[in-house]
Amino acid sequence: MSHPPKVLFVSYGGGHIGMVLPVMRELEALLPGVQCPLMALTTGHHKAKAARPEALGYRDFLHLVDAGAARAWGERLSEGNTSPDVPRDETIAYLGINYLDLIAQHGEAGAADLYRQQGRYGFRPLHFMRKVMDALQPDAVVATNSPRSERTALDVAGERGLPAVGMVDLFGLDSDTYVLHAPKPAWTCVISEGVRQRLIARGFPPDGVVVTGNPAFDGLFSAHNHERAQRFLAERGWQDLKPVLFAGHWEPQAHPATPVPVGQALPREIEAVLRDCVQTRDDLALIVRYHPSDWTEYPRLPDEPRIHFSEPPREPIHPLILASEAVVVQTSTVGLESAVGGKPVISVENSPAAHVWFSLAQQGVSTPAATPSDLPQVLNAVLAGHGNPSDPSYRSDGLASRRVAAVVTKALAGRSAVA
């Protein structure tokens, strides 16, 4: 390769953007002159822009399509599809460009049917992503394991013979569309040997699945975040308390194994039980943290001296995890993240998401609480040191981003050798 390489990163959402940003920094240190354009999508856009003002979104590529038609479709589809954490013009461009691609692939009637059935989950912008590749001319593509733009970017890279590196954030179960999708990328970075073996059994190339850890978790080992955690406790006078972090999320679909309805009923119930625990134990404090994509849907209850409501755009998660003595989740990634950082985790197992996607307890991450009403007893046991220890294979060392960058470098070197 006669020129400095260009590696296109594609990612959405705060958690996944957190996976790619540290890898980009490591890659720039490993390969002087490397260019790392980033397509930062949906709720990851603001976070990416804060770290890298040059980060790109769909709106930066409107000139590659019929911009007027894309904006018109985006306006029509934006009702009920907006987030305060995503700029409106980015939302409109994202929805409109993706819908134009649906029309190009399936015709107007087919696109309407598919969108009616699947909504945004039906997006696979192949035509658009080919134009992006034509415009940017990357030498390799790195994307997280999301099924729309990210997966499409990996597919188009494969079409063109470019090194394609996927990053799996969690367990690589069959509920992750990345696992069952074909074709398989040449390279995939995973969190543990168990996940590696699972992917190999599903047809991924054995030499291309590499245990790196999740770079989004590296911050748990940062001295800066440990200092921020101590400052958080000192500012609230909580140094002698046992703070419990509840990381809750909207339940997007129901499941026959549990009577819990779609929506915010379960996380609100969990929050209520934990608030009662704080009232009955004077050594407890509570941090309430809803998912960055839907936290504004939860009306903020009155503040109390030992209860803190966290606003995700203003408070990163790692200092909150490090400030906590235990972490309560449904199926949030924060559960695994906390286990990686050595914190005991409790998962509420009547979450529909635990049946639709995965149970953290079954994956060796957490101590289970069957329902919110079981939380007080389980929490007491966990705080007393009698919970289930997490699988040690999930533990990391803060160097995952360096290992992923090494995989990307190896993939680039392989392409250079072929060229």
The helix fraction, in percent, is: 40-55%
Helical run tally: 15
Q: What would you report as the Rg, rounded to the nearest angstrom? A: 22 Å
Percent of residues in β-strands: 5-15%
Question: What is the averaged pLDDT score?
Answer: 91
Q: Main beta sheet: strand number and arrangement?
A: 6 strands, parallel
Describe this structure in words.
The chain is an alpha/beta fold. The chain has 15 helices and 12 strands. Strands 2-1-3-4-5-6 form a 6-stranded parallel beta sheet, sandwiched between helices. Strand 11 (345-348), helix 13 and strand 12 form a beta-alpha-beta unit.
Task: Summarize this structure briefly.
This protein has 419 residues and is α/β, with parallel strands linked by helices. It has 15 helices and 12 strands.
Salient structural properties:
single chain, 12 strands, 6-stranded parallel beta sheet, alpha/beta, 13% strand, 419 residues, globular
Task: Please write out the topology.
Layout: E1 7-12, H1 14-30, E2 38-41, H2 45-51, H3 67-77, H4 88-118, H5 126-136, E3 140-144, H6 149-159, E4 164-167, H7 177-180, E5 187-190, H8 193-201, E6 209-211, H9 223-236, E7 242-248, H10 265-280, E8 284-290, E9 307-310, H11 317-323, E10 326-329, H12 333-340, E11 345-348, H13 352-356, E12 367-369, H14 375-383, H15 400-418
Parallel strand pairs: 1-2, 1-3, 3-4, 4-5, 5-6, 7-8, 7-10, 8-9, 10-11, 11-12
Helix pairs in contact: 1-2, 1-15, 3-4, 5-6, 9-11
